[in-house]
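Case study 2.
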Amino acid sequence: MKVEWQHTDKNAPIGVFDSGVGGLTVVREIMRQIPNEKIIYFGDTARVPYGSKSKETVTRFSKQIVRFLNTFQVKTIVVACNTASAYALAELERESDIPIIGVVKPGARVASEVTHNGRIGVIATEATIGSKIYNQYLTLLNKDVTIYGKACPLFVPLVEEGLWVDPVTDEIAKRYLTELIDLDIDTLILGCTHYPLIRSTLGRIMGEKVTLVNPAYETARELKELLTRMDLLGDHAPVLGENQYQFYVSDMAEKFKSFANSIIKYGILSAKTIHIEEYYTDER
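Prediction:
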């Protein structure tokens, strides 16, 4: 069912969602690159991770979240989750009259531009790797590239436990990345929005000859270009006292708030818990 209204309010908020906290890396980049924008963020902390779930389940969850975000009359939605981008984005785009962008295409485009030897690695959740979504986009952009995917399921819980710089994370990363090093890749896509939080560890293990591509940064850049092109870029900063950034979760609001404050230095004053299952889809 298509959304029946279309936004023309430049100063309406941007909706952003993720399976949990990883999408905050995208929010951080949006805050940096387009600081006048208002943001409504939803993290599906009750149902994380998405990476081990089926396409049907992830799509159903994503539709529920889009319905929730649309209650704020957002002007655009960013799917700040690689798994949801891989599994649900095409269907979300078909059903919405507002622009919806994911995190896969921006990262793939940059990787295809920066590689020199055409050997590109992708690290992500099992679902993202299994979907081969990065392979599809990369080969469309450059048929001469070779893509090597590696599922790294333990990175998400390590990041969510705050073990960004830790011997355990180092050891797991070495085990995951050794085969990619041996394959002589020169570009590595961080294909999960949690992964930029351990970027320094990944960069140290991969070495200086490998370019790390952060889709969170590239997605914020693409969002700015999209809003500019559609004349939807916020034209003034929110006034003092206006709630510029709002955060919602499906569970564990206090833990989320603590984690968010370690990533975003703007001071996350609150995170509200909502019952996302109430925003049921037609298929339910």
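The beta strands are 14-18, 39-43, 76-79, 100-102, 119-124, 146-151, 187-190, 211-213, 245-249, 272-273.
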